[in-house]
Amino acid sequence: MKTLELDKIEKAGRQPISTTGSLAVIDALLSESVTTIFGYPGGAIMPIYDSLFGFRDKLNHILVRHEQGAIHAAQGYARVSGKTGVVFATSGPGATNLVTGLADALIDSTPLVCITGQVFAHLLGTDAFQETDIINITTPITKWNYQITDATEIPEVLAKAFYIAKSGRPGPVLIDITKNAQLQLFDYIGYRPCIHVRSYRPNPIVRPEYIEQAAKLINEAKKPFVVFGQGIILGNAEKEFQSFIEKGNLPSAWTIMGMSAIPTDHPLGVGMLGMHGNYGPNFLTNECDVLIAVGMRFDDRVTGRLDKYAKQAKVIHLDIDPAEIDKNVQTAVSVWGDCKETLPLLTNLIENKSRPEWFKEFEIKKEKETTTVIEKELNPTEGGLTMGEVIQVLNELTNGDAVIVTDVGQHQMVACRYAKQNKTRSNITSGGLGTMGYALPAAIGAKLGAPEREVIAIMGDGGAQMNIQELGTIMQFQPNVKILILNNSYLGMVRQWQELFHEKRYSFTDIQSPNFVQVAKAYNIDGRQISQREELREGLKQMLDNPSSFLLEVAVLHEDNVFPMVPQGKGVAEIVLSKEEI
Ligand SMILES: Cc1ncc(C[n+]2csc(CCOP(=O)(O)OP(=O)(O)O)c2C)c(N)n1
């Protein structure tokens, strides 16, 4: 993009022009085609906000109600749009309020550039007002961070920040800029995007011999099984992945982060992996002969006890991050590379085989899960509402076209188990860090990142109260976000563990909530509370049909449990379908 500063430089015959550090920040954002910023101002970032004032028509700044809201909103924005999320925060408490979101974005590979203000350089290390050493605080939770104390560094450092955030395995970058650097006039010669950083290899060269070895293993396999993660979505390789599994006729299961990379009703999709994933894919991980992992990182919630994980299988791992290969699971063949590049090479070499017996095993397990768990969860006829039936009716009303943003807990697991999703980038959740309070701000960001899509935030009554202040952001900026609170009057997931593993000692998990509908109404957001089965469809319809944001609180069963479950410390084949089996 041609920016205003560049215009001036061209007019000046490509001579340096005198500009401030803060205008150079704005110029960097415009050059990187940033259109949306989530932020909150304060003393140490005021020069940047002052420069932003003149560019409000080009840069849509969303004033959140808490910096944690800003960073989760930027995450939601990045996850649905594939762009880099941008955050502004001031020094001290503004910056430390970003910590949870940075950790979340790092573990979930979300590209962010966070710009924090910092005290004047001459005050650094003096315990100045709102001084905090955000660089040391965030070093282990950023892909890269850097402090700028001189304006001349701004263009190059920001270019590097955007490059590092988005390239290779994406992640969050934090750039801390002292106030003097923001105010400083310097000779500016324009913004140059970064395309290379020494010793950083985000695009590895693919080695054909490993592709050949992987193809040979797949072609010889009797029971091949694909497990895939978010790498497919991050690599925009959904089509390549679908061609791969379709050509090989390979049963494929997703991690929570990989969900929606293929439609959830794809005939080769055998369900979700993980502690509360589906019975078949978890159990049969320990029956396959070749396990093909694509863009996933063998998280412990997926593997269960590692020494009991897929020991019989030869493992092929395709990943862009070499640090993930052989980290948790020993591979027979590793294919280091961008799966958009590696998958078509592999597809070329694999054979199409029908494997009726192997697919039958998945079907048998699915039937068992359906009769013992799914049927009761989705189609109860008496008693209180279940979370599953809420998701089931929502599927019918949205036809699987909505972006589902979940918080953390039982509702998250139930939503991910049962939501129908037709399009990629439809499942936005805090997978790796499990951050309660994520959903409401992330949904705001998701709506801004994909305005044409229906965005539904699904939360528990606990998590709903963790960033509830972001209703104020919705009131002011009017993103059309639907808010669905599944209220079981407990911190449900912790209560479930207390019931199953702590002899039902419910230690501080019964939580009181405000009248959520009244709270929403105080923020000018319409809402409704329902508790009866007869009201469910009509209540959800009212929410979806409302032309603007709407909060629907559904009172669900208080002590329902999410099954199946791979109990902590157990192997994936020790997955249980009910509490009696524990
Ligand atoms: C910030 C944060 N604090 C604590 C936890 C631990 N935790 C995981 S699930 C959960 C309960 C969530 O309760 P609620 O939001 O009501 O959802 P439910 O499980 O009932 O669906 C808690 C406390 C967490 N994941 N995140």
TrEMBL record:
<dbReference type="InterPro" id="IPR000399">
    <property type="entry name" value="TPP-bd_CS"/>
</dbReference>
<dbReference type="GO" id="GO:0009099">
    <property type="term" value="P:L-valine biosynthetic process"/>
</dbReference>
<feature type="domain" description="Thiamine pyrophosphate enzyme N-terminal TPP-binding">
    <location>
        <begin position="20"/>
        <end position="135"/>
    </location>
</feature>
<comment type="pathway">
    <text>Amino-acid biosynthesis; L-valine biosynthesis; L-valine from pyruvate: step 1/4.</text>
</comment>
<keyword id="KW-0028">Amino-acid biosynthesis</keyword>
<keyword id="KW-0479">Metal-binding</keyword>
<dbReference type="GO" id="GO:0009097">
    <property type="term" value="P:isoleucine biosynthetic process"/>
</dbReference>
<dbReference type="InterPro" id="IPR011766">
    <property type="entry name" value="TPP_enzyme_TPP-bd"/>
</dbReference>
<comment type="similarity">
    <text>Belongs to the TPP enzyme family.</text>
</comment>
<feature type="domain" description="Thiamine pyrophosphate enzyme TPP-binding">
    <location>
        <begin position="407"/>
        <end position="554"/>
    </location>
</feature>
<dbReference type="InterPro" id="IPR012000">
    <property type="entry name" value="Thiamin_PyroP_enz_cen_dom"/>
</dbReference>
<dbReference type="Pfam" id="PF00205">
    <property type="entry name" value="TPP_enzyme_M"/>
</dbReference>
<keyword id="KW-0460">Magnesium</keyword>
<dbReference type="InterPro" id="IPR039368">
    <property type="entry name" value="AHAS_TPP"/>
</dbReference>
<dbReference type="InterPro" id="IPR012846">
    <property type="entry name" value="Acetolactate_synth_lsu"/>
</dbReference>
<comment type="pathway">
    <text>Amino-acid biosynthesis; L-isoleucine biosynthesis; L-isoleucine from 2-oxobutanoate: step 1/4.</text>
</comment>
<keyword id="KW-0100">Branched-chain amino acid biosynthesis</keyword>
<dbReference type="GO" id="GO:0030976">
    <property type="term" value="F:thiamine pyrophosphate binding"/>
</dbReference>
<dbReference type="InterPro" id="IPR045229">
    <property type="entry name" value="TPP_enz"/>
</dbReference>
<dbReference type="InterPro" id="IPR029061">
    <property type="entry name" value="THDP-binding"/>
</dbReference>
<dbReference type="GO" id="GO:0003984">
    <property type="term" value="F:acetolactate synthase activity"/>
</dbReference>
<dbReference type="Pfam" id="PF02776">
    <property type="entry name" value="TPP_enzyme_N"/>
</dbReference>
<dbReference type="GO" id="GO:0000287">
    <property type="term" value="F:magnesium ion binding"/>
</dbReference>
<dbReference type="InterPro" id="IPR012001">
    <property type="entry name" value="Thiamin_PyroP_enz_TPP-bd_dom"/>
</dbReference>
<feature type="domain" description="Thiamine pyrophosphate enzyme central">
    <location>
        <begin position="211"/>
        <end position="344"/>
    </location>
</feature>
<dbReference type="InterPro" id="IPR029035">
    <property type="entry name" value="DHS-like_NAD/FAD-binding_dom"/>
</dbReference>
<protein>
    <recommendedName>
        <fullName>Acetolactate synthase</fullName>
        <ecNumber>2.2.1.6</ecNumber>
    </recommendedName>
</protein>
<dbReference type="GO" id="GO:0050660">
    <property type="term" value="F:flavin adenine dinucleotide binding"/>
</dbReference>
<keyword id="KW-0786">Thiamine pyrophosphate</keyword>
<dbReference type="GO" id="GO:0005948">
    <property type="term" value="C:acetolactate synthase complex"/>
</dbReference>
<keyword id="KW-0808">Transferase</keyword>
<dbReference type="Pfam" id="PF02775">
    <property type="entry name" value="TPP_enzyme_C"/>
</dbReference>
